[in-house]
Amino acid sequence: MFKRIVTSVLLFSSMMANAAVDIQPNTLYPKVEFDTTMGKIIVELDRTRAPLTVDNFLTYVVKGEYDNTIFHRVIADFVVQGGGLNPELEERESMDPLFNESGNGLSNSMGTIAMARDNDPHSATRQFYFNVDDNKNLNPSKRRWGYAVFGEVVEGMAVLEAMSYVPTQHNDHLNWPDFPVKEILLNKATLLAK
Fold it and tell me: Greater confidence, 104 or 194?
């Protein structure tokens, strides 16, 4: 009996916490500002083409889950990736993986934002990347899933381009190549007012 009461309380608390998160569900093209150590970037998200991905991303934004994270993968003329690690190189907690919305007609073109994932096409959770070139090889084809694009940069493209050319090195702790020599921090991600 006690176990059932505790479970019910926890479930109710979880539902109330999610209900309190305002991700502007009726805004088709919400905007998010990234305040980074290299400057500000504003992206416009496309809920008409990627509703599940946008809702997932905005939940992380509104809960402050992207605040004080690093951009840990930078490849010039390819991608700038972040959203998953804190400055101590610890992985941040993730919600459940997403259904892959890569077949939505949006392309991995210069200045777009998309979800990072593992080899499993439906493994994206919280990490995202910016395309810093036209990366058609990341789009879906008849034979494979792609990487789901869900918005584009509308301000701060020069900041993103500068990020993409920072010196990188191999990080032994993560066993990860293309790691910025000087930390690039995402201080805060903010859902802008309607």
Answer: 104
